[in-house]
Amino acid sequence: MAGAQEAAGAAKPSGSNSGLLGLAAALAVGLGAIGTAWAQSRIGAAAAGAIAERPEMGGLMLVFLALPETMVILGFLVAFFVIGKI
Question: Whole-number mean pLDDT of the chain?
Answer without folding.
Answer: 84
